[in-house]
Specification:
Length: about 325
């Protein structure tokens, strides 16, 4: 659908909030806290951005975009190529990071730009009168995004943890010690930060079903670990060679096959493809460990093969 950038707010030196409204004045499709949208950029890329506003709002979507110095072209385009009043094409909201329906108390952890879906969750939990606390980790005070929203709406529930300021240090043992089955933990931020929070919770006895996380960037494997393999397509006599420097998606597209792609990192699940034979080398963060163990589908944008070939079906 087409939307208009109604407002752009500079939240931090590197993060901007984009308020999007319908181009025809109609209400936008509803969403639940934790959802994201696909944004189709003028440079041809598609990127996912979490919705940060309250899900009860029907007139707007708000996304926060970090201008990443290692940008592959998405955040740079959003920051440099778009102005208020410009049109933008987006997809309908999708949710891979929902609030668990049995949550009776929540602990929210956000690192840096990871505050975007966590903020929407905080609004929702407050509206539902579900107790929660929000721990926001940043490198400096000026890097706190949505500071006004957080301090206005969540006074007494928001805790800022600022690098280099010992008085703001988070005592993880104290935060995580009360671990009943109706408590759920939600975390979003850099991969290392999320791993730290998840490992801390597991050490304190939290169960897997109580832990929820949202990935912005998948872990990258070294290209030197990549072996060439062959893809066969059911119904075709063609054999596609995937070289060590290529992804399976790149090889398939170069050979004329249409593969839907979006994040290209194994986060969104857009490109999931059925596997009929062979053993995939799963490198996505979209599917569960149980789904990986079935070996009946894989994400060609990032995953490869442990076997010498894969037989797939579109």
């Amino acid at each position: 659908m087409d939307v208009v950038i109604n407002k752009i707010h500079r939240l931090t030196p590197s993060i901007r909030a984009f308020e999007l409204i319908s181009s025809n004045g109609s209400a936008l499709p509803s969403f639940e806290a934790g959802a994201h949208i696909d944004v189709h950029l003028k440079n041809g890329l598609t990127r996912q951005y979490s919705l940060s506003n309250c899900c009860s709002e029907k007139h707007r979507y708000v996304i926060g975009v970090l201008h990443d110095e290692h940008s592959r072209g998405g955040s740079r385009c959003m920051h440099t190529e778009y102005r208020e009043g410009d049109q933008l094409r987006i997809g309908a909201p999708r949710n891979l990071f929902e609030i668990h329906p049995h949550t009776q108390k929540a602990i929210l952890f956000a690192g840096g730009i990871g505050i975007t879906p966590i903020l929407s969750m905080a609004y929702r939990l407050k509206a539902q009168r579900i107790p929660f606390e929000l721990h926001y980790f940043v490198r400096s005070h000026e890097m706190i995004a949505f500071y006004g929203n957080l301090t206005e709406h969540f006074a007494g529930q928001i805790h800022f943890h600022i690098q280099g300021q010992p008085e703001t240090q988070c005592d993880m043992s104290s935060v995580l010690e009360q671990n009943s089955s109706d408590r759920h933990l939600y975390v979003c931020g850099p991969a290392g930060f999320m791993a730290f929070v998840m490992e801390s919770a597991q050490h304190m006895g939290w169960q897997t079903e109580q832990l929820h996380q949202e990935h912005f960037v998948a872990q990258k494997s070294e290209a030197s670990n990549n072996a060439a393999f062959t893809i066969e397509i059911k119904g075709s006599d063609r054999r596609i060679e995937v070289q060590p420097h290529q992804t399976a998606t790149q090889a398939l597209i170069e050979n004329g096959f249409d593969v839907p792609i979006s994040c290209e990192q194994g986060i969104c699940g857009t490109c999931i493809t059925r596997v009929l034979a062979g053993i995939p080398d799963h490198r996505d963060v979209f599917m569960t460990d149980e789904e990986h163990a079935l070996n009946n589908q894989f994400t060609p944008c990032c995953s490869r093969a442990k076997s010498t070939s894969l037989l797939i079906e579109f």
